[in-house]
Amino acid sequence: MTKKRTGVFVCHCGNNIAATVDVKKVAEVMGTEEGVAYSQDYVYMCSDPGQNAVIQSIKDNNLDSVVISCCSPNLHEKTFRDNAKRAGLNSFTCEIANIREQCAWVHKDKERATEKAIKISRSAVRRAGRDQALEPIAVPVTRKVLVIGGGIAGIQAALDIANAGLQVILVEKQATIGGHMLQLSETFPTLDCSQCILSPKMVDVSRHPNITLLTYSEVKEVSGSVGNFRVNILKKPTYVDPELCKICDDCANVCPVVVPNEFDLGLTARRAIHIPFAQAIPASYTLDESACLGLNPIRCGKCKDVCEVGAINYDMRPQTLIEDVGAIVVATGYDLYGQEHMNELGGGQIDDVLDGLQFERLCSASGATKGHVLRPSDRTVPKDVVFIQCVGSRDPANHCAYCSKICCMYTAKHASLYKHHVPDGRAYVFYIDIRSGGKGYEEFVQRIMEDDEAIYLRGRVSKLYRKGGKVRVLGTDTLTGQNVEIDADMVVLALAMEPSKGTEEIAKTLKIGRDKDGFLAEAHPKLKPVESVTAGIFLAGCAQGPKDIPETVAQAGAAASKVIGLLSQPTLSHAPTVARVRNSHCTGCEMCVSACPYNAISLENGKALVNEVLCEGCGSCSATCLRAAIEVKNATPLQIHEMIEACLA
Amino acid sequence: MSEQQAEVTTDYEPRIVAFLCKWCSSAGSDLAGVSRIQYPSNATPITVPCSGSVSPMYILSALKKGADGVLVSGCHIGDCHYIEGNYLARRKIHLVKELLGFVGVEQDRFRMSWVSAAEGAKYSQVIKDFVEDLRPLGPQTKLKADRS
């Protein structure tokens, strides 16, 4: 073993560690370990005095490496490595022994926990004993950003990043940007028109010199790492040239195929060739291949015949675009939890039982009924409307365990919109409790209850069924203890929000994690709310969890500022804990070459050669090599074997 | 031999070396800590970059140095931080099991689990189960080097 002078510093973390682990004993035992020149314990190692004590000890004892026995390296590895650097050490000769999360917090027996803390600390001492001084590898940065998802989150992030002078590629799966916000009639609590506040931003996106907009496109593959990702984007054919299309509507008028219009959630119909809505960006028609009679002039070809400018081209093919970007913002949004899951509430089979988004389309001036609230089955004005909150939310036994956060507010808004349209109608709201945290939110709900006279009933609905021309609602009012039966003309369900369809796929493509509910996982619930676990990939909007528009806009701005901060550096530093080849042992068998997931290893003159910029230090090569000829720096087989020994001594 | 017999007669506590990948399982064990989910202290964790970096030699080395059980825990299949490291781990692990059976070591002494960063409770359960399953096997002596 190389002659080392390691210092061990054992933290009490107040009582967090010291209550279960005899920290003094750990420090004492560590002091007797081979290669340890100094050891001490201290109440808060991460505090200023604690860090200064480490610096002083390094200087006083001429230490060449340090082990800090404290909390998880995820919390303070950087703190202590920076501190070691201040004392003149190489930061990679500082190791963390996690005796809090992996020991003190999960055990009660002090003697056994102390024993385990000693093993963990000793193991770290062994690792430090063979740590080499390393310098971060500088990697060039691509100053271009990919934003996935063109809803309000993606739009805001794209604009903020583009305004900072960076190039942005905004990829949207649908034929237009705008997302769900575009489907909304008004927004709470100010009741301003959703389209009126969103459309200008959409136009800004389409005209921004720094933004390349790719609609009807999907991200298919992502490789590389922070600063240098390479993405494959599939651009699906719209069969209409947006440059030529004059949005005259002649094609849709002759198209013989009628299908439900997804923008109005099936409340209206559209043709196979269509524009999602009049103000779509890009302003162009799209030919829905799945609905079209066959893109074949012999079978139909009416739209192509009638198009005066010749914008329609049946020979358009899918295109794969390859782009290099330095960072990625994921803003893939949400979908509503399907009514088909709610069997007791009709399972989506009862007419006039709508979801929240459908009701928005009923209220919207551009919607199915041109802004008149008419029930879909017979187009009469509904006089009794029941709104049900928490449908699918807060029900861990059967549906989603979480609170979807926005439903209390949008239901209040729905009741208000309804009462403004039908002043003599009655709006009933079934709720579990009202969650109206937000600026002006509580006042808004109170106003709906008092001024708009919405009838709030605290309780749940057990069943919905059709009875004559009405929908019978069986519920309970837990404040009076009475069962409630209402013959409603229309029922609106505030369905839970769930991650949009395709979130699982995109998470896999990007190699970012999801939480237990399927939303994209942030790197830290409190301190890194817009970062994904993968460096260089950021999250915005409802893809990360249910949230309202102001929160989404704020999060998108935060993600944008993180991206701008990241890409404002001339180079990024890449961890130097990469693979190294011991040429004397390498036989050029190429097993490491095929094991490397990053294609970072090649064969030069019969020996393996590692591209340090591509290498992520996963160690797959090292575990594959039969001759121990390739190893990850500072996690070498020799180090691991010694750590194993330390764990069992 | 007398020492080993002494171990059997006294309360036998299996000694486990747990190789945890840095991104999922180590983070999952951190979550168990943050959530204060209690589990036996028999397993000493060694954090490695990836479950795919765990060479079969490490597993044999642990058994040789006296471990009663070895755990390798990585990201869920398909969720590997390094794209496909855990696939490599899974393949190797199968071979190690075969090899252990071949040399006469109980295959249950070696275990692989998939624990994500969000699965603190699962991590603690994995350890609990492993400790309980190792108890009936008694101390591992087959591969343990005699250092006396």
What does this entry look like structurally?
The complex is a heterodimer of chains A (649) and B (148). Chain A is of the alpha/beta class and 649 residues long. Chain A has 5 domains: 6-135, Rossmann fold; 144-236 and 319-333 and 500-567, FAD/NAD(P)-binding domain (3-Layer(bba) Sandwich); 250-306, no CATH class; 335-498, FAD/NAD(P)-binding domain (3-Layer(bba) Sandwich); 578-632, Alpha-Beta Plaits. In chain A, the strands form 12 sheets. A 5-stranded parallel sheet of chain A has the order 10-7-6-18-29. In chain A, strands 20-27-21-22-23 form a 5-stranded parallel sheet. Chain A is globular and about 90 Å long. Chain A starts with 5 loop residues before the first strand and ends with a helix. Chain B has 148 residues and is α/β, with parallel strands linked by helices. Chain B has a single domain, classed as Rossmann fold (3-Layer(aba) Sandwich), CATH 3.40.50. Chain B is 41% helix and 16% strand. Chain B contains 5 helices and 4 strands; from the N terminus they run αβαβαβαβα. Chain B has a 4-stranded parallel sheet, sandwiched between helices. In chain B, α4 links the parallel β3 and β4. In chain B, α2 crosses α5 (120-134). Chain B is globular. The model of chain B is unreliable at 1-9 (pLDDT under 50). At the A-B interface, α4, α5, α16 and α17 of A face α2, β2, α3 and α4 of B.
Provide tags for this entry.
heterodimer, A: 649 residues, Rossmann fold, FAD/NAD(P)-binding domain, 5 domains, five-stranded parallel beta sheet, 17 helices, 25% strand, B: 148 residues, alpha/beta, four-stranded parallel beta sheet, 5 helices, 16% strand, globular
